[in-house]
Amino acid sequence: MTRQGRGSTGPGRRSALPAADYKAPALVHEGGSGGLVVDFHGEDGRRGTFDVGKLPLPGWHPLLAEAFAMRTGPGGGLRTLSGAQNRWLPLRRWTYFLASLDPQPVVPAQLTRYHVNAFHTRTDSAAGTRQRDMAELQVLIGQEKIRDQIPMEARDALARRLPGPRTSPEGGCSAGELDRLTAAARADTTRIVRRIRVGEELVRRQQQDESEGIPPQQQQLAQVLAGMAETGEVLPGTGIDRWRERRELAARLFLTWSDLAPLMVLLALVTERNGETLKELPARHRLLEGRAVEVRLVKRRRGADRWFETVTWEIGPKGRELHTPGGLYLLLLELTARSRAFCGSPSALCVWRNGHRVHARGTRHEHYAPFDADLRAGGQLQLSTWAATCTKPVLADPPTPTESAKGQENALPSIEMPLQVTFNNIKTSVDARRIRQLGGHLPSSAKSNTAQVLYTNYLRPDPATREWAEGVMADALADAERAARDAHAEVVRRRGSPTVIPSGSTPDQLTGAGLAPGTAHDLAHGHLDTAWSACGDFQHHPETGKPCGGSFLLCFLCGNCLIIQEHLPRLLALLEALGRLRQRISEEEWWRRYGLVWVAVRRDILGKFTPAQVAQAQKEQVPDALLDLVEAPWETP
């Protein structure tokens, strides 16, 4: 391709394409030493090479190389060289730690929960380092093509919550807890669907005189179910535990109260709506070409005339009903169709109750919509009880070991506790997951709430979201500072660096430090002073050779700049003023305007003075940093 720029395309002009035999270079290839190497090409043009072959445990090299290539490739989240270098360190620490164990997990298939827990609680690293390492491993190994190569118990241990030093008990679930909760809800919903569909098939055969297709042992059951389907009445049991018998019989054809917990949890996870909205889910809907379903939802607490919202939910392919909001909604209508016909409610959630009221016992009035009269009936759902007693109980992540227990080799293992489930923490969890998928952009992430409500009520109390946001901000600030340092180094290469004379301020002392006698005399008597430093040759800029016309802030990036101890109080006042400005403008704007100055003063100048000289200069009061005299005025927020 030879054409470049926006002008290379246009009406009637074909786009520039690579040659027919062009193949994109592989991100992972064999290096000169025979080991795997990952090449990196950042958005800023910087390139890097990461040699996986130099790491221990060769059995891990293919997986780690592929995972790191995906993390740093065009579709990954790391598109700067500094970000890739920072994320390479946790990977190195992970492999060297596994290599230090006895026995070693020489291949990924041998990784266990014990190895992950041991890495998270190791004592040779600071708590912050351990937390950042685990967070990076969660992203690295949690990628879709990588996670299936890791055993389930190790993936489960990796997907734990990583609380910060000030963790609040409020908030949502960790990624691992959310995955376990989703799997349990889908498994129980699948059993409910299978149970009712089997009963419906018996009723269909009985009603269509296909009794010969019904097994002999089920013919009597088919007759009973057919009667129930026609009248809605469930016959009383005959045994000692007749209430249990009635409940089991009704469950073959109708949705029961105990079925609501997994269904409601799965609805909250798939639709990403709060519990109140789901309780008032209507049965009325409109199909859109068999691909989507249009439903009018109720969203409370929005103010007058703003309670209703029309949503369009994807139905998805057949067999994937439990993964799409439209498919799950239609499946719910299928499961509750008979009860809804008997009770006449427009609600999508209609169930059979086991004679809760004496006058309804044994009649069609046992079918009802539990949330029509009172939304607080959901308090009886007991989502946490279901999560603790379902076929595969949903457990919470083990707590992070305390500082006092970290050094105890024979410490007892932590007790696995059931996960506490509420509609609020489900909503917080799915909102946090969505905002991470959208890169943290709140306006785009707001779905059923405003951006302000989403942040205040759901994201801010969530420790996992705070950790993720803090990590994003820390990476951004590190990239900004590193960019300023790189730009400073480039400017110094062209213009030179300031001459700093930390000891001596008399003409003789300055002459002895290497200055010309005339320059030393003028510098000692303040004749060369500018705003915060001095200039040795104002008439000849080191880069242009012409008289200098730049800002005094650029003096620190010039080979003509002269600094002596008398300038130190003004330099400290300048740094203090820049620090105050950092609180008033955005970090991006601050680093763009003052990053080079900050790096130059902190790196090239202050480091050449002794701590005693800096402490003495801090005692001298400088009334004004003179910033308003050297640059254009700015608006005060």
What does this structure look like?
Helix 7 crosses helix 8. This protein has 24 helices and eleven strands. Strand 1 and strand 2 form a beta hairpin. Helix content is 46%, strand content 7%. The strands form four sheets. It has a three-stranded antiparallel beta sheet, covered by helices on one side.
Mean pLDDT: 80
Integer-rounded radius of gyration:
34 Å
**Which segments are poorly predicted (pLDDT under 50) over 5 or more consecutive residues?**
1-7, 165-169
Given the C-alpha coordinates, what overall shape results?
elongated
Structural class: mainly alpha
Euclidean distance between termini CA atoms: 48 Å
Strand order of the largest sheet: 1-2-3
Q: Helical region count?
A: 24
Beta-strand residue fraction: 5-15%
Counted beta strands: 11
**Helix fraction by DSSP (H/I, runs of at least 4):** 40-55%
